[in-house]
Design a protein that fits this description.
The complex is a heterodimer.
Chain A (H helix, E strand, L loop, with lengths): L6 H17 L5 H17 L4 H8 L2 H9 L11 H7 L2 H7 L1 H4 L4 H37 L2 H10 L4 H31 L5 H32 L16 H19 L1
Chain B lengths: L2 E11 L5 E11 L3 E5 L6 H8 L7 E6 L2 E2 L5 H7 E4 L3 H4 L5 H12 L3 H14 L24 H13 L5 E5 L7 H13 L3 E5 L3 H7 L2 E6 L2 E7 H6 L1 H6 L6 H4 L2
Parallel strand pairs in B: 3-8, 3-9, 6-7, 7-8
Antiparallel strand pairs in B: 1-2, 1-4, 4-5, 9-10
Helix pairs in contact in B: 4-5, 4-6, 5-6
The chains are: A mainly alpha, B alpha/beta.
Chain lengths: 261, 252
């Protein structure tokens, strides 16, 4: 996978885009298509797998969908005019809200609120998905180490970037330890009921915590052995080059356009 | 020759009450390569962790290049003693091989400008990069440690210590879990180290090839200390302390 720009420039560009997506919501179809096109172009440029990227981005849907379910409740008990003014005019107009919201008892009121809030739900889900898509694109085209270094250059505390680095470094080991533990359990108890298996997973989690603590102690010892005194060493700063600055300018202009369109 | 490291009646007990070392005394002269042999739980790893102050002795004293092991001398002692852990996943904790190799030197105050050259040099030394390939920073330097093979990780772990230029290498099971080819490469690498080394291992063939002197630990006590050839020729001694001479050495 090739990386056309520095991680710092890409991180800033992605953050600008995310802020504009959040601030500029609700978005027209044109804006959504433009952002998705941008993501496609960046991932093609970086030779990343677009399919994988899109599939991963869907992870946010259950979470965003779950939260969006509560959004229409703000319309409960409101009059048609109040709903019309609470929703962006173009959405309210397109959905014909003023005509649909009526007070018809508790259930009817709930149904009306969801009817009125449906466009808002869609916008919430869309906004979350676009943000996650942009951030996932960033994480896909930039190696984690570069991203962490970029975060450091943006003055994120070194201890925090180290912690994120450790998580990234050891999450695979943790996963493989968990899978070997669960394999060992299943092999020795092939007829175990699902309920008992679920209970035993509690024991596995306990073993995993102990193993993780052991490893943390050994890693700490390895750090001490290499002269770590509590102050984390810092690598040299990298300057932004012309390509990075161009990317940032484009990102800012694009973000402002999204916010104001 | 003056001692590189000296253990004087050192004992260590873990918080759970396990008596790992019981009055151990020995010294290593500069330039010596010494093997630390013993069955599992004999106290080898504890003895190694004491060498650069990861653990502190309960009783007794340790002197490293004439400095007494104490908190005020730890910085100097950790520059002198390079400790390589058995499991490279404990040693390689950063997100890239480059960052891992740079971690020690940066802590020692090496400037960021010197790092690239240093990283290239040690990667060549451990055989992860050919000398002809180091015009630019080698690709392996930007790889995540978890994406290397086990053998490569073992060598990268050694590279992290080589980059700190220690005078005494302390290695825990350097050939464990390596395939035969990887093992041979590691032995060649250890042979090429011109430094004083203390190597804890079960690999007696390697000991035969590398170390002129061996120390046998059992139950936290030194039960034998002498020439490797003499100790490994004494089958009853080895057997009594849970060690076994490989067939290749037995019939050679």
């Amino acid at each position: 996978m090739s990386q056309p720009f520095s991680a710092r420039a890409m991180l800033l560009a992605a953050l600008a885009l995310v802020v504009s997506i959040v601030v500029g919501a609700p978005h027209s179809a044109l804006v959504v298509i433009t952002i998705v096109t941008l993501v496609v172009m960046v991932s093609l440029l970086a030779q990343a797998s677009l399919r994988k990227l899109l599939l991963r981005s869907l992870v946010v849907l259950p979470i965003a969908g779950g939260m969006a379910l509560f959004a229409p409740l703000r319309f409960l008990g409101r009059t048609a005019e109040a709903v019309g003014s609470a929703v962006a005019p173009e959405i309210a107009g397109a959905a014909g809200l003023a005509e649909t919201v009526q007070s018809t008892g508790m259930l009817g009121s709930l149904a009306n609120a969801y009817l009125a809030g449906a466009p808002l739900m869609v916008q919430m889900i869309l906004t979350s998905w676009l943000c996650v898509l942009v951030l996932l694109t960033l994480a896909t085209v930039c190696p984690v180490s570069d991203l962490l270094f970029a975060l450091e250059q943006l003055r994120l505390p070194r201890a925090l970037t180290m912690l994120l680095g450790f998580i990234h470094r050891y999450v695979d080991l943790l996963r493989s330890e968990l899978s070997s533990l669960s394999r060992a359990m299943v092999l020795r108890a092939p007829t175990l009921s699902r309920r008992r298996q679920v209970l035993l997973y509690g024991n596995l989690a306990g073993s995993l915590v102990i193993r993780t603590q052991d490893r943390a102690e050994r890693v700490s010892a390895a750090m001490l052995a290499r002269g770590f005194t509590g102050v984390l060493p810092r690598r040299h700063q990298q300057r932004l080059v012309v390509a990075d600055i161009t990317l940032l300018v484009i990102a800012v202009v694009f973000s402002l356009a999204i916010t104001w369109v | 020759m003056k001692p590189s490291i000296e253990y004087k009646d050192v004992s260590y007990r873990y918080p759970d009450g396990t008596e790992a070392l019981k009055g151990v005394s020995f010294q290593l002269a500069e330039g010596e390569k010494v093997a630390l042999l013993g069955s599992n739980g004999a106290g080898k790893s504890t003895l190694l962790l004491l060498a650069n102050g990861i653990l502190m002795p309960r009783t007794g004293e340790i002197f490293v290049a004439g400095l007494r092991l104490a908190s005020e001398n730890l910085k100097a002692i950790r520059q002198y003693v390079g400790l390589v852990f058995q499991n490279p996943d404990d040693q390689l904790f950063m997100t890239t091989v480059y960052d891992d190799i740079a971690f020690g030197p940066l802590n020692q105050g090496v400037s960021a400008e010197e790092l690239d050259a240093l990283v290239k040099t040690v990667l060549v030394e451990v055989g992860l990069v050919l000398e002809s390939e180091v015009d630019v920073l080698p690709e392996i330097a930007s790889k995540a440690p978890q994406n290397l093979s086990f053998g490569q990780r073992k060598r990268a772990a050694l590279a992290t210590i080589l980059a700190m230029h220690p005078q005494l290498f302390v290695l825990d099971e350097p050939t464990s879990n390596l395939d035969p080819h990887g093992r041979r490469q590691m032995i060649a690498l250890l042979l090429s180290l011109p430094k004083t080394s203390l190597i804890a291992t079960h690999d007696l063939e390697m000991v035969w090839d590398i170390c002129e002197r061996s120390i046998i630990l059992d139950g936290g006590l030194i039960v034998a200390d002498g020439s490797t050839r003499d100790l490994l020729s004494n089958e009853s001694l080895l057997e009594a302390h849970g060690l076994e001479l490989p067939a290749q050495l037995r019939y050679s």
